[in-house]
Amino acid sequence: MDFIQNTVDGIMIGSRYSLLAIGFTLIFGIMRRLNLSYGPSIMLGVFIGTFLFVQYQAGWFAIAAATLLGAILVGIYVERLCFWAIRQGAALASMVSSFAIWMQLEELTTLFFPNRTYPFPRLTSAKPFEVAGINIQASYLIMFGFAVAIMVALNFALYRTRFGLAVRAVSENPLAARFMGVSTGRVTFFAFVLASAIGGIAGYLIAANEQQVTPLFGLWATFKGMIAMMLGGMGSVPGAILGGFVLGVVESHATWYLGTEFRDIAAYGLLFVFLVLRPGGLLGQRRAERERLALRRV
Amino acid sequence: MLRTEGLTRYFGGLRALAGVDYSLEGEGVFGLIGPNGSGKTTLFNIITGLYRPSAGRVTFMGKDISRLGPHRVIAMGIARTFQTPRIYARMTVRENLLAAQHTLARAARAADRAARIDRMLEVTGLAARRDELAKNLPLPEQRRLELARALARAPKLLLLDEPAGGMTPAETDEMARLIEEVAAPGRTCIVIEHKMDMIARLCADVCVLNFGAKIAEGTPDEVLKDPVVLEAYIGRTGGPS
Amino acid sequence: MDEYTIQVLSNIGMFSFIALSAYLLLMTGEISFGQQAFFAIGAYASGIATSMWGWGLGLGILWGALVAAAAAFLLAWPTLRLRGLYFAIGTLAFAEMVRLVFEIFRYQVEIDGELVGPDGSDGFRGVRYTFENDISNFQYMLLIYVLLAAVLVFFFLMGRSRLGAIFRMLGEDELLAEMQGVNRTFYKVLATVLAGFIAGIGGALYVHLNTYVEPKIFNVMLGVHSLAYGLIGGLGTSLGPLLGVAIDIGLLESIRIFTGYRMIVFGGLVAVLLIVRPRGLLDEEVVHWLKYRMWRPFARPVRRQPDATPREVRDAQD
C-alpha cells in the first residue's frame, strides 16, 4: 500500500517537474542548446507575482498574469541576448552566455527581494481527499491536470498548426527550413515565448502549491527540469512529461526508503544511469538522430 | 582489388543501394556517376566503413571489409575525400598534413615528415598557404588540401567524392590535372563526379548508378551515349553537354 | 606586497587549475560541467592526508591529485560513448553526486583531543598544515604559481607534441581523426584523467590555503565557471583560461563600487563578449595572427616547381 501511495505521490509531485521540463525540451528541440537561464527567468516572473501579492494584495488572476508576463519578458531578453545574437555554430558560447545571464538574474532577484522567502497565494483551499485508500492532494492534482492539458495542447499545436510545422522543420534541419521560406529567427523567437509561457504557468503553479517562493527556485527549477527532460528524451514533449513523472516517483521512493538526503543523489544517479545506458531517454531517439543532436562544433 | 557483391543498403524505408555488383582491378582512374541520390556516396560510405551494408559484402585485396570500422579500413590502405571538404578547420594547412601522418608508424623522424609535407605542399600548390588556417582557404584550395591529406598515407585505393564540386571550369581543369599527375599514378582511384568532361578526360572505365542499382558500365564514350544513362540523367530527349 | 593582493593572486592561481582542467577537455571537443568534482576530491583527499594522516604538504597535494585522477578514470568509461551535450550533462550529474556524497561523508579521527576530519555538510575543518608549519601566505602563493607554471609548461610542450595534435584533432573532427587512425578510447580516457589530475592539484591547494572546505562550494556554479573562464579568456591557448580567471577574480574583486551589482554587470559583459567573440578573447584566430603575422612578418620565399616530372611528383608522396 505504501508503495502505491508513494508512486502516486511521486507522479503528482512529478507533474511539477514535467511542467518545467516541457519548456526546456521545447527550447532544446529547436535550438540544440541548453538554456541555463530557464529556471531563473521563471523565477523572476514568479517574484513579480509575489510582489503584486505582497504590495497590492492583488487577486490570483492578476498575479498569475503577471507571473506569466514576467517569465515571457525575461525569456525574450534571454533569447535575444544569448541565443539569437550568437551565431549558429557556437553552441557552447550560447550556453555559457545563458549561464552568465542566470547569474545576472539571480543577483537581480536577490537585490530586489533580499528575504529568504516570500509568501505566494495558495493554489486551492480544497482539502486532500482519498481515492481507493490513497491520499491525494488537490493542489497536486491540479498541477497534474495542467501538465496533461499542456501536453495535449502542445501536441495539437505542433502537429496540427502551421506554426507547429515550422517549429518541427526548424528542429529537424534549420538550413533546409530557411530555404523553404521559414524564418528561423521568428520561429525560434515564438517557440521561446511559448516555452517561457509554459514555464510561467509552471512557476505559478509550483509557487502557489508551496505558498511561498525563495531565491533558490531558479537553480532548483533548472536542474529538475533538465533531469526530467533528459530522462524523457531531449526534444520530446511527451518525454518531458513522462520524465517528470519518473523523476517524481524515484524521488518519492528514495525519500521513503532511504531518507531525504538520498533523494537528490537518487535523482542524479538515475540521470547518470540513463545517460550511460539509454542516452536517448525513455521516449528516446535512435542513435543516428542522437548523433545529429550531439554537438560537433563546440 | 575491390569488389562488391550484391551490396544493398536501406535507410529506414529508403533503398539507397540495391544489390550492386562492382569490381575493380589494377591501377588507374575509374568513374562512378549517376544522378543525385543514386547511391554513389553511400557506396563510398560503406566501403570506408562508415555504414554497414544491409546485405551483400565488400572485399578489398581479397579481405572482407564489410564490417570493419573506418580506422581499420584506412589502415588497410583506403583513403577518401568528401563532398564538402573535411579538414581540421582551426588548424593550419601544415598542421592538417602533419595530423594525417601522425599515426603512421613508419615516418619516424620529424625531419623526414617535415620534408615529405613540404614536398606535398609544393606539389599541390599549397606551399604559400602552409601557415594559413584551413577554414580561411577558398574552396578549391580546401579540396586540394583534402587531396593532399588523403594522399599522406600513400593509399592503394583513393576514393574522391566530387573533387571538382562547386569549381569553375578553370579550377576543374586544375583539379583534373592534379588527379592525373599526383593522385592517380601508382594507385587505383574512383572518382564520383557530375562533370562529364572531367570524367571523360580522367577515366578509363565508368560505372553508372541510378536509384541504387548499376545501370551501365564501360568506357566514358560508351556510357555517355547509352540511352539508359541519358534517360536517367536528362530525361528522354537531349544529350550530354 | 600587501595581504589583499596576495589573496587575490592566490585565488587566481588556484582557480586557474580548474579552468585549465575544463580547457583540456574542451580541446578534445568535450564540454564538461563537472570538473569541480575533481577539485573537491583533490581537496578532501589531500586535506585528509596532511591533517589526519600526518603527511607532508607536497605528498598531500600529490595524493589529492592522484585520487582525483583515479576518480576521473572511473568516470571516463561510462561517459565514453556520450557525445556533446549528453557528455556535458553526464559530467554534471556525476559532479552533483560527488558533492552530495560529500554532504554525508564523515571520517574523523581524534588528534590532540579534538575531532578532525570531514563532517558531512558541516564541512572539513582544521586543515592547518600551513599554520603548523609556518608557511606564510606569500610563500604559499609562490607554491601555487610554481605548480601552475609546471602545468603551463606541460600544456606548452603538449601543444607542440603529437599528443596535443591528437587532442586537437579529436576536438576538431572526431570522425575524421578516427579515420586517420586515432584510438579515440585511449585518448579520451587519457584526457579525462589528466584533466582530473590538474583539477585535483587546484583543490589540494585550495583546502590548505583556506584550512576549511564544505561540499556547498563544489557546486555547479563552480563547474560552469571553470568552463566559462576558458570561453572568456580564449580557447586558442592555455593562457586563455588564465586570462578568464584573472578577469573574473582580479578585475571584479578590485572594482569595489560594484558590490551587490557585480554579477549583474559581469554577467551582462560576458554575454556581450560571447556575441562578438564566441571563442573568447584569445581564440584560435587571434593566436594564429599573433604567431604567424606578428612574429613572422616576412614569410619564407617559396620555391616554385612548375615542371615537376612525374617521377619527382611521385617521390613527393612517397
What would you say this structure looks like, in words?
The complex is a heterotrimer of chains A (298), B (241) and C (318). The relative contact order of chain A is 0.19. Chain A has one domain: Orthogonal Bundle (ABC transporter involved in vitamin B12 uptake, BtuC), CATH 1.10.3470. Chain A has helices at 2-31, 38-56, 60-84, 91-112, 138-160, 162-172, 174-179, 184-210, 217-232, 237-258, 261-277, 287-293; strands spanning 118-119, 129-131, 134-136, 212-213. A two-stranded antiparallel ribbon of chain A has the order 1-4. In chain A, strands 2-3 form a two-stranded antiparallel ribbon. With 298 residues, chain A is mainly α. Chain B is of the alpha/beta class. Chain B has a domain at 77-189: P-loop containing nucleotide triphosphate hydrolases (Rossmann fold). In chain B, the strands form 2 sheets. In chain B, strands 6-7-8-3-9-10 form a 6-stranded mixed β-sheet, with helices on both faces. In chain B, strands 2-1-4-5 form a 4-stranded antiparallel β-sheet, covered by helices on one side. In chain B, helix 6 links the parallel strand 7 and strand 8. In chain B, helix 3 packs across helix 4. Chain C has 318 residues and is mostly helical. Chain C has one domain (3-317): ABC transporter involved in vitamin B12 uptake, BtuC. Chain C is 69% helix and 3% strand. Chain C has helices at residues 3-27, 36-52, 57-76, 84-104, 129-132, 137-159, 162-172, 174-179, 184-210, 220-233, 239-254, 262-276, 284-294, 310-317; strands spanning 109-111, 114-118, 124-125. In chain C, strands 1-2-3 form a 3-stranded antiparallel β-sheet, covered by helices on one side. In chain C, strand 2 (114-118) and strand 3 (124-125) form a beta hairpin. In chain C, helix 2 packs across helix 9, helix 3 (57-76) packs antiparallel against helix 9 and helix 6 (137-159) crosses helix 7 (162-172). The longest helix of chain C has 27 residues, at 184-210. The radius of gyration of chain C is 22 Å and the shape is globular. Mean pLDDT of chain C is 85; it is low at 300-318. Chains B and C meet through helix 2, helix 3 and helix 4 of B and helix 7, helix 8, helix 13 and helix 14 of C.
